[in-house]
Specification:
about 45% helix; 16 strands; alpha/beta; six-stranded parallel sheet; single chain; about 400 residues
């Protein structure tokens, strides 16, 4: 099968988040099945095409057109003008690949409507749009309303999802939320989990030693519940004074300023700043080492579709304390691979983290259950095989629709 995946934040050139990690893992797994896999990504440096780990990666530049030049003060990496310009650049590359060697299917994320231009310019190709977390849901989770520019992105995302041959997503929770808001039948959304590499993210040879360590991995953003974590830290220290926290991720700036500095203010007022270490994003090999040295991984998010942080922690055999929000309860069964707490509740979060720090036997049992679940359900090979089945379904559906048109 000849497959083209769109992912503007494809690593390592672009430092992105969950979409980049998901696409990177899937692309390599699909290539290992014998498929011809192309990825169209955003170029930070010189536009080029290279073979990377069996995947042909095309890094394209989004040209500054007249519309973007005229509205430059209002544009930027997150603007709807930038999103549309990149979508057009990606579509041109997909069209080039289609005429040069043929393609069987295209997949794009709904985020920023990355595949919208390709959907319009290549109606002859089946196109699967993968749901990660649409913009409306991000705003709803933190109680914000959509700005005029965000409304444009919202309608672009909605149009891309509705035009697709089929949709996929990692969790049932997201499928239901998007189907309701975008006005599509839930039956056209196929649930396929994200994958994690269990060979890279593997358990340590022996349980972690030293001071009890709590690890957070992800963007330091209000949506991720990091301010709730900051409020929970002194409560954990009241029960486990020797506990130490490590927060790994890029800072997120809001209209109120730096989220990291906001966290530090909360910690400083509670006299707990010395118990928390902040790190910028680290290479994957270093991240694995941080997981292996952690006693507990925490994710107090208000919403998350199917967080890679949770998968990576479980794969490393580390129990998780996470919010019972979004798709997380579909990955973590409370009391088995970790503990689930209500989002926005620092007291319950602290209580659960402290309970696991004080019970090494329970942590060991949960860590083994976590690792077993990853090997059973979330390997790249298993997810790639399920994805190929959906691509074949999309190809059949597309052919039927064109015949009946």
């Amino acid at each position: 099968m000849r497959i083209c995946l769109l992912c503007q934040e494809y690593p390592p050139e672009v430092k992105g988040g969950g979409i980049g990690t998901y696409t990177h893992t899937l692309a390599r797994a699909l290539a290992r099945t014998g498929c011809r896999v192309h990825v169209v990504a955003r170029a930070v440096g010189v536009p080029r095409s290279e073979l990377e780990e069996g995947v042909v990666v095309h890094r394209v530049a989004s040209p500054p057109d007249l519309l973007r030049k005229a509205a430059w003060p209002f544009t930027g990496p997150q603007s709807f003008l930038d999103a549309y310009a990149h979508s057009r650049a990606a579509a041109r590359k997909v069209l080039e690949l289609f005429w040069a060697e043929g393609l069987d299917v295209v997949q794009s994320p709904e985020h920023g409507a990355e595949g919208l231009a390709a959907l319009r310019s290549l109606p002859q190709l089946p196109h699967v749009v993968r749901l990660h977390t649409p913009l409306f849901l991000v705003h709803e989770a933190v109680g914000r309303t959509l700005s005029p520019g965000a409304w444009v992105v919202h309608f672009m995302e909605r149009a891309a999802v509705r035009r697709a041959t089929l949709n996929t997503c990692a969790s049932r929770a997201l499928a239901l939320a998007v189907a309701r808001r975008f006005g599509i039948r839930p039956g056209r959304i196929r649930v396929v989990p994200n994958a994690v590499d269990p060979e890279l993210f593997s358990p340590a040879a022996s349980p972690p030693s030293g001071e009890p360590s709590v690890l957070y991995v992800g963007k330091l953003a209000p949506l991720k519940g990091v301010l709730v974590l900051a409020e929970a830290v002194p409560r954990v220290l009241a029960r486990v004074p020797e506990a130490r926290f490590v927060c790994v991720g890029s800072d997120h700036t809001t209209p109120s300023g730096s989220t990291r500095e906001w966290m530090r203010q909360v910690l400083r007022k509670a006299g707990a700043e010395g118990a928390v270490r902040f790190l910028d994003p680290v290479p994957r090999a270093e991240l694995v080492d941080l997981y292996r040295r952690a006693h507990v991984v925490v994710l107090p998010t208000y919403w998350d579709n199917f967080p890679n942080t949770v998968l990576e922690a479980l794969s490393c055999g580390v129990p998780v304390v996470a919010s019972a929000a979004g798709g997380i309860p579909e990955i973590v069964t409370h009391g088995q691979e970790g503990l689930l707490v209500p989002p926005g509740d620092p007291e319950r979060l602290a209580e659960s983290v402290a309970a696991l720090l004080l019970d090494p036997g329970r942590r060991a049992d949960m860590g083994q259950a976590a690792r077993d679940r990853v090997v059973r359900e979330y390997t790249p090979h298993r997810v790639a095989q399920r994805t190929l089945e959906i691509y074949e379904e999309a190809m059949r559906r597309h052919a039927e629709l064109r015949r009946s048109a």
